[in-house]
Amino acid sequence: MTSKDCGHDDDEKSGLLRGILGGIVFLIFIVLFVVFLIWLILRPTKPRFILQDATIYSFNVTQPNMLSSTFQITLSTRNPNQRIGVYYDRVDVYASYHNQQITLPTRLPPTYQGHKDIIVWSPFLYGQSVPVAPFLGLSLQQDQNAGLVLMNIKIDGRVKWKVGTWISGKYHLNVNCPAYITFGNKGGNGNGNGNGNGNLNSGVNFGAAIKYQLASSCEVDV
């Protein structure tokens, strides 16, 4: 084979390689364009959550560093999407204080949320004699003296998206709802359903529940 033939073969190989690379780049462009077109048509948006109210039945600190609490909360979620439905699967709700979980997780029922639909849940949250860090008792007493306690209602679960007959895989759902609870004489935002005074030393007992209208927007991460 002459050197001229070798050069011709090299040119053919280079041309073939450029053709393959060009085809791969074109295919990637088509895929990205289709993904962008689907996103442009569907405009996917995360569900929106609101903590509407919280009813406190008990909220007591006992020694050594044990916290007992019982709440009922009302959560609403709205699906803002016009073409995407949402499946809620294995969704747990619990309360935390200073980033420490103070109630057991309550499992919400599996639910499908259609386009623009609103779902309302009213779960009970229980935490009996939950061990807490020693500093939390002091922090809770200081918050009581200030007349305001910040808790967080958190949601942890899985969601799936539905477009037409297609259903996606599972995505992690993480929701954080701040709940500002007022106590004592400074607690003007609570609507008492009984004769409880909201004092953290004596606690709020069953039959003396205090309901707080919150309407607190939640942070949602999917």
Automatic annotation (TrEMBL):
Residues 74-177 form the Late embryogenesis abundant protein LEA-2 subgroup domain. The chain crosses the membrane at residues 20-42. Its main location: membrane. It is found in: Membrane. GO terms for biological process: defense response to other organism. Signal peptide: none annotated. Pfam families: LEA_2. It is a single-pass membrane protein. The keyword Signal does not apply. InterPro entries: LEA_2, NDR1-like. Keywords: Membrane, Transmembrane, Transmembrane helix. GO terms for cellular component: plasma membrane; plasmodesma. PANTHER family: LATE EMBRYOGENESIS ABUNDANT (LEA) HYDROXYPROLINE-RICH GLYCOPROTEIN FAMILY, OS05G0367900 PROTEIN. This is Late embryogenesis abundant protein LEA-2 subgroup domain-containing protein. It comes from Saponaria officinalis (Common soapwort).
